[in-house]
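Sugar ABC transporter ATP-binding protein
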Amino acid sequence: MTETPTDSTLVMRGITKSFPGVKALTAVDLDVQAGEVHAIVGENGAGKSTLMKILAGVHPPDEGTVTIDGQAVRFDSPLAARKQGVGMVYQEINLVPDLTVAENISLGQLPSSAGVVNRRALNRTAARVLQELGARIDPQDLVGRLSVSQQQLVEIAKVYASQPRIVVFDEPTSSLSEHEAQALFRVLERMRANDIAIIYISHRLREVLDISDRVTVLRDGRMIDCRPAQGLTPQEMIRLMVGRDLDDVFPKREVTIGNPVLEVSGLSRVGVFEDISLTAKAGEIVGLAGLVGAGRTEVARAIFGLDRHDAGSIRLNGQELTIRRPKSAVRAGIAYVPEDRKRDGVALSLSVKDNISLSVLRRVSKLGWIRRGQERVLAQQKAEELYVSPPAIDRKVATFSGGNQQKVVLAKWLATEPKVLILDEPTRGVDVGAKADIHTIIGELAERGVAIIMISSELPEILAVSDRVYVLHEGRMTAELERSDATEESVMSAATGEVMAA
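Predicted structure tokens:
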């Protein structure tokens, strides 16, 4: 374990925190230097969020001390933490879409005189902050019209404008493409050059190693180790995080691939995607790759009937389908796990049991009445099959970790016994243990003969699990690659619209 540097901006010592029935943190230590990117990694439930909420003034610690620039502090509110130079950039973007970029950046501290906002000063401040961060965004643009990556930069600019000493980034790249993430990393470098202490939380382990100076590993609310990022490997981090070896985060099973199940030909939607043709065979995992905005999700939604398509055909086991709404797709044997599980995938206020049965109410009901016994048996079976932990089917989904919520989404759709399963970012925002479980589930489904289409912004994930990879660029198919030909270079070349070498 590394020694504590004497010039640390932040020092947290012996941080302990309990909630009713749960000990979230036990004697956790953390120190971060000025101009350092210090990563914190661990499974969901390891204590990362609780530790950061203590730093941000959301929760007081039961025990332990927090020191900033040599001064002991104890925050009773997030406002008190901000006044001491602690900034938080959360995974969920927290901006007002109907206000301008400049208004969002200065929200809560608008320059004004006699109750009138000084627009010139407002825009001048925003322009200066955005320029310092290297973000090419017009201060007078409405935030609601910006891309997700641009909104992320505005979120960072809002924190940066308060002149923080410490900034916490919580999964900042979860909704960004590789190219957009690189823009974020350039902003981090500028902040590092200004001697800001940066705490970086991410499940993307290679990304962590690329940008961080040191890595602290948490497991079950305890600090396991703190090491320099240089020389550390993803495999070693995984072992420290889960307490066991995971030789392959993306296990690939050898499966006999059968006949075509889903055949999409010439699918088009004006202004969105054009002439998309693809095939998914029984037992095959087909990767759908491309940069954010390439049209991957839009194609998936059209196949499932969530969005219309203007031309093209969809065939299942050789029979042409007319799919104008999801109900038709489900009846035909197509299931779709959406990108945003909290908004589109589960009803957080309902139980695991209720969520799983939603997709098969006809099967578990008679004369309009739900057969509760049959519903419980089905839900318990699916929860156990998909490693939902704990398999407590009467608990509200909102009380489970992100990884287990994703498993409930999968359980809901697998209850329909689909022939084709479309997975849109199935492991986004889940920890490495849950990610391994989800990939095991995907492998088991392929063994059963389900045809799987998987969308992922993590290129190593696509390459590791796919039997074939289709690549989209600006709504058009630019490559179809067999597993042996799919490399990071070949996929990115097609994803960026470059001409591939013969």
